[in-house]
Amino acid sequence: MKKLFDNLPFRLLLGIIIGVILGQVFPESVMKVVVTLQYIMGQLITFCVPLIIIGFIAPSITKLGKNASRLLGVAIAYVSSVCAALMSTGAGYALIPHLSIDTEVAGLRTLPDVVFELNIPQIMSVMSALVLSVLVGLAATWTNSKLTCDFLGE
Question: Strand, helix or coil at 106?
Answer without folding.
Answer: coil
